[in-house]
Specification:
The structure is a homotrimer of 157-residue chains.
Chain A (H helix, E strand, L loop, with lengths): L6 H8 L17 E4 L2 E7 L2 E2 L2 E2 L11 H23 L5 E12 L7 H16 L6 E7 L8 E9 L1
Parallel strand pairs in A: 5-6
Antiparallel strand pairs in A: 1-2, 2-7, 3-4, 5-7
Helix pairs in contact in A: 2-3
Chain lengths: 157, 157, 157
Amino acid sequence: MIKSNFVIKEKLDTLGITLPTPPKPAGSYIPVVRTGNLVFVSGQIPIKDGKILYSGKVTKDLSIEDAQKGARLCAINALAQLNSEFGNLEKISKIVRVSGFVNSPPEFTEQPKVINGASDLLFEIFEEKGQHTRVAVGVSSLPLNSAVEIDLIVEIT
Amino acid sequence: MIKSNFVIKEKLDTLGITLPTPPKPAGSYIPVVRTGNLVFVSGQIPIKDGKILYSGKVTKDLSIEDAQKGARLCAINALAQLNSEFGNLEKISKIVRVSGFVNSPPEFTEQPKVINGASDLLFEIFEEKGQHTRVAVGVSSLPLNSAVEIDLIVEIT
Amino acid sequence: MIKSNFVIKEKLDTLGITLPTPPKPAGSYIPVVRTGNLVFVSGQIPIKDGKILYSGKVTKDLSIEDAQKGARLCAINALAQLNSEFGNLEKISKIVRVSGFVNSPPEFTEQPKVINGASDLLFEIFEEKGQHTRVAVGVSSLPLNSAVEIDLIVEIT
């Protein structure tokens, strides 16, 4: 059997994921910078077609389940940025780091559960290459009142 | 016309920026570490001559405009650290990552506007090389009650 | 005198530190990823034998001194992750970055003092190689109500 050159594209299709036109940065910076084999992706928020879909403080303004969907959307937006930069996602050899910031009231302590929305998706898409290190913290507020913000560092070949 | 070897120095002069003696770390760590072609700069706060110039929570204790000036000062301090480490800033081939933490009340959502104070300056100084990825979040509090804290990762040649 | 190949191991022994079995990730990710000579360690919390030892908001629920011990325990857990991945810590040529997130009430501003609990230990163990850059911020809440969370980037040879 001939192995496709578009393993990740096929996986996205199987999962029913269409990468959107990537959202524009919310400030004076750019979405992706490559240095050597590392690629940094700017912080992504749960925005779709110019509209924040998951906003507010988790448990107060939205459920953990919705915040997880928000984290998943952040990850999709990050992949859309990479896709837009490199033409496809096949060059990604490793997801190195996921940093997840959860818009949290002082008493909320289940940030890992929220960020799993992004982590699970990355593992589904990239399998072994998608196993990443992670930082998940609760923050007092986020840009445009997003419920979650996620940034990535990936390795490419 | 002969191109100067001190393009960045001249740009700083044009902008009227004199890099200060870099502030000492506020704890038991060092300001700059190089690994390969990457250079990490410790989190910088809006301090000048030993005094925090922009403190408190944005919109509650200071205006967005002042917080932007604070972010700009953080960036200047980061460049001062790099200048002190390498003798000049000419070796910087790319600003890779800016992380910006804004001292925010729970309802503040304009972190990108604040961190633009740093991003705009980096672009003014380094032009194309200064286009960076960015993470901007709101945090509940910062060292010495700083209004903003910024750290950098840069690439050098 | 023949120099030992296990300098760091001996230092840990001298300090009376036994690296624990590293704690399992609190979500769907892995503790350590290597890319080139850089190694990223996931955010570590002050957990021992499955129990969070230092929890709550600093000054409100625990003292700065206890939070420092929490930061030290986070650093020990990060080293335990690296030890588990590489078999020992001798390959570490540099601690590049320590990011420290302190569970802080809005008025707490001594995050550097807390994170020194980790920084001091890293310097004690690795001496010159342990001198790192650092980011320390206050966050509104942390996973499992941890008082502090710390992640590392190290360089290995």
